[in-house]
Amino acid sequence: MRKLITFDSISLDGYYAALDGDMSWAHRHDPEWQTFVEGNASGGGELWFGRVTYDMMVSYWPTPMAAKNNPIVAAKMNAAPKVVFSRTLKEAAWSNTRLVNGDLASEVRKMKSEPGPGIAILGSGSIVRQLTDERLIDEYQIVVSPVAFGAGKALFAGLRSKLNLKLTSTRAFGNGNVVLCYEPAP
């Protein structure tokens, strides 16, 4: 069974985006954080996105600006095998991207059972919540950023039942970000 992790940035008060959709706060770069991000990008595996996150990613990573500003991550993002889950998207033009538009839970169960590399969902709050409800995520990597909004789009808003987690590791960064890694607990 392929391992499915999710990597999400949230504010201190639990939002992955402000009410207006702003996520610029999640990009707090410094040399230590950049090294971490490059290491993550070099981990291999397949990248999964919902349509909103896919649209955001494809608008940046294949561009000359991304290649100039962040060449290592841009190269890895563009070369990685990718899946976008969408009921509305008609085609996925980003290199190495496959479009999946069937029932999310059924498709993910099938894809996790197929041979292949590990899987990382990047962002994609709606996909994370739906797959959490189905108990299909094996690890949650949550980056808590030192910002609070008071309102926004909560990563776990609308869960059907409580999610118990077990902390497996932590790492704090000089830019104020803290990475918390959790596995589902009974």
| CATH class membership | Alpha Beta
Please count the helical segments. Answer: 6
Corresponding CATH architecture: 3-Layer(aba) Sandwich
| Average pLDDT for all residues | 91
Rounded to the nearest angstrom, the radius of gyration is: 16 Å
Name given to the CATH homologous superfamily: Dihydrofolate Reductase, subunit A
Arrangement of strands in the largest sheet: 5-4-3-6-1-7-10-9
The tally of structural domains comes to 1
Query: What is the terminal separation in angstroms?
Result: 19 Å
Main sheet properties: 8 strands, mixed
Structural class: alpha/beta
From the spread of the alpha carbons, the general shape counts as globular
Strand content: 25-35%
Q: What is the oligomeric state here?
A: single chain
Helix content: 25-40%
Write the layout of secondary structure elements.
Layout: E1 4-11, E2 15-18, H1 31-41, E3 46-50, H2 51-58, H3 64-69, H4 71-79, E4 82-85, E5 97-100, H5 104-113, E6 119-122, H6 125-133, E7 139-145, E8 152-154, E9 165-172, E10 178-184
Parallel strand pairs: 1-6, 1-7, 3-4, 3-6, 4-5
Antiparallel strand pairs: 2-8, 7-10, 9-10
Features:
10 strands, alpha/beta, eight-stranded mixed sheet, 28% helix, single chain, Dihydrofolate Reductase, subunit A, 186 residues
